[in-house]
Amino acid sequence: MLKGIHHVAIICSDYARSKHFYTQILKLTVINETYREQRQSYKLDLRLPDDSQLELFSFPDAPARPSYPEAQGLRHLAFVVEDIHSVVDYLVAQDVEVEDIRIDELTGKAFTFFSDPDGLPLELYAQA
Taking the model in full, what pTM does it have? Predict the structure, then answer.
């Protein structure tokens, strides 16, 4: 019935800062960018290499995330990577704070967390 995840939507507090983070640091490809005047809102569609998408929204006066990361709802967004060490090194070189790499006790795979500019928890998860 379900075939995969088409997109994940993220609401940011500073559109320019988040656009830079997702397009320049995480290197996601811009599909489309729309400004919706009546909502005073941007919508930025971004593509990942597997064709899944992130939608980045800006809304005036959107409330902050209640806690990190144990609030009800989406806990975090995980990205699969081939070489977790090289991605961590790259992010650190971009001044992104990254937690220490850990090993998932259930799968034996390496993972770590970092945050987007609004504190949204993002995970890197080793493919192999």
Answer: 0.88
